[in-house]
Amino acid sequence: MQSSDDRARGAGDGPERSAGNRRDHGAPTRDVRHEDPWCDPSAQGWDEPHGAGSPAPTVPSARGEPDAAERARDVYIEVQRSAAFQEVRGRYRRFVVPGVAVFLSWYVAYVVAATTVPGLMARPVVGAVNVAMLAGLGQFLTTFLLTWAYARHARLRRDRAALELRWDTQEMTRETRGGAR
Q: Scanning 29, 81, 142, 172, which has its CA 20 to 30 A from the CA of 45?
């Protein structure tokens, strides 16, 4: 095993220990840095003074006018309530909900059959290929078929309407910001 400073435990205590690895374990040090490659202290605000990483508080307009964020929020709420958006979401749900139900039922049936009727699953079909192997390969096949069907459905039934909806939303938000930039 190795310790956190990349040397074997118990090693390096003798005269062969390099001068760079020597530490005075009795004296407190102030320049100790956390050397964790998965932790970015600046992203977490550990190395910043209190409140330096937080956004500046917004000051409400003196005239009582809504700011750009409120206007944009209103645009997205309006789009969400629109018939076009509801139609796109409805088309999505009409495909996904039955597809997920059928696929999960097929998967659960496979697992239940494998655990409750092992004799049936072990029955040979052709040579060394048995029912369980065919059902397992069927799981992969149905995954690919469902993926293909989803992509086809999205391309033929939803993408054009969603793209038009996105374009309209961008136009509406551009208008709320006061023209194109």
A: 29
